[in-house]
Design goal:
The complex is a heterodimer of chains A (272) and B (317).
Chain A (H helix, E strand, L loop, with lengths): L4 E12 L2 E12 L3 E5 L6 H8 L7 E6 L2 E2 L5 H6 L2 E3 L12 H10 L19 H10 L15 H13 L5 E5 L7 H14 L4 E5 L3 H7 L2 E6 L2 E6 L1 H6 L1 H7 L27
Parallel strand pairs in A: 3-8, 3-9, 6-7, 7-8
Antiparallel strand pairs in A: 1-2, 1-4, 4-5, 9-10
Chain B lengths: L2 H18 L2 H23 L8 H18 L3 H23 L4 H21 L9 E2 L5 E2 L3 E2 L3 H23 L2 H11 L1 H6 L4 H27 L1 E2 L6 H14 L6 H17 L7 H15 L3 H20 L4
Antiparallel strand pairs in B: 1-4, 2-3
The chains are: A alpha/beta (272), B mainly alpha (317).
Bound molecules: adenosine-5'-triphosphate and magnesium ion.
Magnesium ion binds next to helix 1 of chain A.
Chain lengths: 272, 317
């Protein structure tokens, strides 16, 4: 019964001093899906991510991963059971090389991470796998570079390669295409699609074209509450969503190959 | 210049140095150099600013001093006992401190170090204000009489080199990789599943143990353990040495220790003794203004700047 969902969040509440950033959010992520979490700036998307991965503790609510209650686990433990997140601001290890960034993730499984007396040349046996992962995101040529010297788009790609090194069951991406140009966006979207063959993806995304193209399921968040959840057709047809996100009038509806017109929009342009 | 050549040259220099320079001075530089290197492992590579490292230097000094004078141990066992005592204290203090971030970490370490200061001031076996004096140097392995400053110097050099190599290895180990990752981006390291507190604790203990070894060695050299070793000024001085020499570089802390010990030495002999701390303050300000990366950290940049300048002056081809 529970196997249907990788992750279930029930009644999540997060109250910061004075106001409730996440108010009674329930979210079910189906195995194998690409699930998008969308909503205007400040809706609470990142906060939900922080709650799901326990970087923040929910004021109230319950988290189930594969049916198992994980509400009280620490964030590093959450990562070890197979739920790995990325960050809204690109998160690489700037002073490590590109190769080392990926290798640090591979290294954890080996159980020698406390060996301070062993030479780091012992890590060379991981280089092959690390290069493979870099290859898959098109970064193999940059392996020896300092991560800090990569362009923004490449840092995000490196972040994804690092995350994939852990072979997570559920991957949480916080705005993977933010601040990227068109080509980078297409590349990352393609990458997410291919990653999805191995793992379930939950992503926060502002670019509605990416959302429309990739998502099996969408949850719309507004002022800390779930406005609606469903597939793209359902969500984009919802009058509340349309009212909130579109300056688009009804006549444009359905004009582009069944994809409603909001696909062209970018949510950060719309404030509620 | 090749790194290996540099280190070889330094070793030769260190082996010959006591022929030209007063060995006690050199030993002092090496002891504080090891102390600063241990501190730098924590700050420069672990990203943790301890403001109470004197507690470990002092514990090594007092425990070794007490063990040598009371139990008549051989120096190698005496040094080991002092080092282990500091490591144990490091484990307790580290467990209390590593959960705190940034300035809170510094404050916790300072508070705990002050606690140790009062323990050593009040405890019956530490000699109170006088400290422990006339501690015997003993005979290394029961054979080599350390009363000779030359023999003592080469022991200190060996200890420093051992500590230095251990730090070097620690940084270039699987553990060191994770440590650097944590320093670079702690949240990301957590999100990759690392229990960062445990890594911080381990580096804290290694650093404390080596600081203890430095203190223990200093006790043998000067045959004295005193409240100066656990005073908060000492905790401040090691920060200074590390920053002046170059935080996060390998040789920086030794260079910083050399500079500060020399300044102290030059001033304390004359009527200028009272100005030691003023001078150190000024060195610090100069460093912050001129060499942000410390003397060693700034060196490659100076060289490359010079090289660029020269190239610019050469006629175009
Ligand atoms: N630690 C915190 N303390 C207090 N308020 C917070 C904290 N973190 C977030 N908030 C507030 O909670 C609300 C939701 O923030 P959150 O970052 O989750 O939004 P978001 O949907 O990710 O927005 P964006 O699209 O800009 O990334 C915002 O009003 C924010 O100011
Ligand atoms: Mg956000």
């Amino acid at each position: 019964m529970t196997t249907d969902y990788v992750l279930e969040a029930r009644g999540l509440i997060k109250a910061f001093k004075g106001f409730t950033a996440v108010d009674n959010v329930s979210l079910n992520v189906r195995r194998g899906d690409i699930h998008a979490l969308i909503g205007p700036n400040g809706a609470g998307k990142t906060t939900v991510f922080n709650l799901l991965t326990k970087f923040l503790s929910p004021t109230r609510g319950q988290l189930l991963f594969n049916g198992r209650d994980i509400t009280s686990l620490s964030p590093d433990r959450i990562a070890r059971i197979g739920m790995v997140r990325s960050f809204q601001i690109s998160a690489v290890f700037p002073d490590l090389s590109v190769l080392e960034n990926v290798r640090v993730a591979l290294q954890r499984h080996r159980g020698d991470s406390f060996f301070f007396w062993r030479s780091e040349t012992s890590l060379a046996s991981l280089n092959g796998r690390a290069l493979e992962l870099l290859e898959s995101v098109g970064l193999a040529a940059f392996a020896p570079h300092r991560a800090a010297d990569l362009s923004y788009g490449r840092k995000r790609a490196l972040e994804i390669a690092t995350t994939l090194a852990l072979e997570p069951e559920l991957l949480l991406l916080d705005e993977p295409t933010q601040g990227m140009g068109h080509e980078d966006i297409d590349a990352v979207a393609e990458l997410i699609r291919s990653v999805n063959r191995q793992c379930t993806v939950l992503m926060v995304e502002h670019n509605l074209k990416v959302v429309a193209d990739l998502s099996d399921r969408i949850t719309v968040l507004q002022r800390g509450t779930v406005l609606i959840e469903g597939d793209y057709q359902t969500v984009s047809a919802d009058p509340q969503v349309r009212a909130a996100y579109m300056g688009v009038d009804e006549s444009e509806d359905g004009q582009t190959s069944g994809r409603p017109a909001i696909a062209a929009g970018r949510m950060q342009e719309i404030r509620v | 210049m090749n790194k290996r050549t540099l280190y070889c040259a330094l070793v030769v220099l260190a082996l010959l140095a006591p022929l030209a320079v007063y060995p006690v001075f050199l030993m002092k530089v090496l002891c504080f150099g090891l102390f600063a290197c241990a501190f730098n492992l924590l700050l420069g590579f672990g990203g943790l600013l301890s403001f109470g490292h004197a507690a470990f230097l002092g514990t090594g000094a007092y425990v070794t001093g007490y063990a040598m004078s009371t139990w008549g141990l051989t120096p190698e066992i005496g040094l080991l006992v002092g080092t282990l005592a500091s490591a144990a204290l490091g484990l307790v203090y580290g467990a209390l401190a590593v959960r705190r971030e940034g300035i809170y970490f510094a404050m916790v370490t300072l508070a705990l170090a002050q606690l140790m200061f009062f323990v050593y001031l009040q405890a019956p076996f530490t000699g109170g204000e006088d400290g422990l004096q006339g501690i015997p140097r003993g005979q290394l392995l029961g054979v080599v009489d350390l009363q000779s400053n030359m023999a003592m110097y080469y022991l200190v050099l060996a200890i420093f080199s051992g500590g230095f190599l251990l730090i070097h290895r620690t940084i270039h180990s699987p553990f060191g990789q994770v440590l650097k990752a944590i320093r670079d981006n702690e949240a990301r390291a957590i999100s990759l599943g690392y229990q960062v507190d445990r890594y911080k604790l381990l580096v804290f203990v290694i650093s404390a143990a080596l600081a203890g070894l430095a203190g223990a060695t200093k006790t043998l050299v000067f045959q004295l353990a005193s409240l100066n070793d656990v005073h908060w000024l000492m905790s401040g001085e090691v920060v200074l040495m590390t920053l002046v020499g170059g935080m996060g570089t390998f040789l920086g802390p030794l260079v910083g220790a050399g500079v500060l010990v020399s300044v102290e030495h030059a001033l304390s002999s004359g009527t200028l003794g009272a100005y030691v701390h003023v001078a150190m303050g000024m060195i610090f300000v100069l460093c912050v203004l001129l060499f942000r990366r410390g003397i060693v950290g700034e060196f490659p940049h100076l060289v490359s700047k010079l090289a660029k300048g020269i190239r610019r002056r050469l006629p175009m081809r």
